[in-house]
Structures are given as C-alpha cells and as structure tokens.
Amino acid sequence: MSQAALAGDPFSEAPAVPREKLEEIFDDIKGHILYDHELHGCLNCGICTATCPSAHYYDYSPREIVQLLWTENLEGIHDAMQEKIWACAQCYTCAARCPFENSPGGLVMIMREVAIKHEMESAKQVLRPFSRVLLKVISTGNQLAPNMITREAFPDWGPNVSKVDAPLNILRKAIPVPTLHTIDTAWVVNLKTSVELYTIWEATGVLDQLESVDENLFDVVTDVMDEKREEYQDWLDDQDEDDDA
C-alpha cells in the first residue's frame, strides 16, 4: 500500500492507519441513526467548550469534536477516538447551550459506540475497570452495592473514608425498607426484570459489543444469564403446576 493511502502522526511511533479504515470508521459514525439529529452546523463560537465541565480539567473540547465531524477530518476524528472522547461526562450542557442545537455529547456517544465496534484499544482500556460494575448489574440488577464501597476503591474521599468503616450490616438492618437489609445489593431486583434486561441487551447488540471488548467477561455474563433464565423458567413451571392443581 502506498504511503499516500495511509494517515497518521509523522512524529508518533504508532503505525499509520490505512485511509480505507479511516473512511470506514467515519461512515459508521455518519451512518448512525442519531447522527443527523446531533449535528446541524457550527459557528465555532465556543459556547459549548466554555460551559463544559470536562474541558476545564481534561484535554477535551466539545467544539473540537463538532469541528472534526463537520469538516470530515478523518485523521483528527480517529485521533480523538483514542483518548479525548472518553473525557466527556455526558452531562449535555453543550447541547443545552449550542445556538445551532448541536449535541457534542450525543456525537461523542456515537463515536464511543463506533470505537467499541471497531475494537479500538482505547475502548477496551476505558471499559475494563467497569467490569465489576457490569457483573454486579448482571448478577443482582444493581450497579453498586454497599460492599463495593472500600477504602481502596475510593482513595480520593479523604477524611470521609472513615464512613466506609461504619458497621454497614447493622446500619442496613436499621433501615425500615425490607429490600435494604443487605450489603450485597442496593435493593432487591425481581428475577423477571433481570431476564428482561438481558433480553434487551441481546436484542440491541450490547452483548456483541461486550464480546469484542472483553471476551472473558462476555463468557461470565452469558453463564450468569443462562442460570437466571433457567431459574426464571423453573419459577414459571412451578406457577403453571400450581394453577393446574
């Protein structure tokens, strides 16, 4: 392949990305069902960046994202997908302030989906720490439970970390709501609800994306799903027997 067919930073040690690959990535972004709803033009006014919380702390600019997509800067788009798009907090302040009614946050979400689809290393690195949270959702229907709050997980709490050492078992039992009497889950989720959640993930391609990012986690998730579905089917069978009795 000729050098003209490649694109990349001449000062970077990373291999150049073929032009065809850059075009494929952009086509997937532009072909997203929400793309035309999120991008309408750009005055380059900078209001989105001025009001963006992430822009104050990270090398991230909503205006840059819009400009890259609006001008179809394929190399810049690919570069932004390696790190910058993961700095967005998805607060959508940018969308609320843009005079063109653009949604940089929505565009970032599309770019993240495409990064996962193309199995970019940036997506794998960013999503890897969330594996414990995902397993919690799969197994209990909760994103976070009291027993997940530890000193090691929240080193930036400072003096407030002392609250983590509180007798959680006793405190949870003191809460009058019955579903809060455990530290293993934030609340009790109905088995049917869990099965329905899994089914939605299957139908919408979430599990396919998970497999491309973390195959081992995908295997664990599918095993848990199979057990949940068997458990739910056994419950349905018991209900039918009771009705027949």
From TrEMBL:
Residues 31-63 form the 4Fe-4S ferredoxin-type domain. The keyword Oxidoreductase applies. Keywords: 4Fe-4S, Iron, Iron-sulfur, Metal-binding, Oxidoreductase. InterPro entries: 4Fe4S_Fe-S-bd (IPR017896), 4Fe4S_Fe_S_CS (IPR017900), HdrC_iron-sulfur_subunit (IPR051460), Helical_ferredxn (IPR009051). GO terms for cellular component: plasma membrane. SUPFAM superfamilies: alpha-helical ferredoxin. Transmembrane segments: none annotated. GO terms for molecular function: 4 iron, 4 sulfur cluster binding; metal ion binding; oxidoreductase activity. PANTHER family: IRON-SULFUR-BINDING OXIDOREDUCTASE FADF-RELATED, IRON-SULFUR-BINDING OXIDOREDUCTASE FADF-RELATED-RELATED. This is 4Fe-4S dicluster domain-containing protein. It comes from Devosia nanyangense.
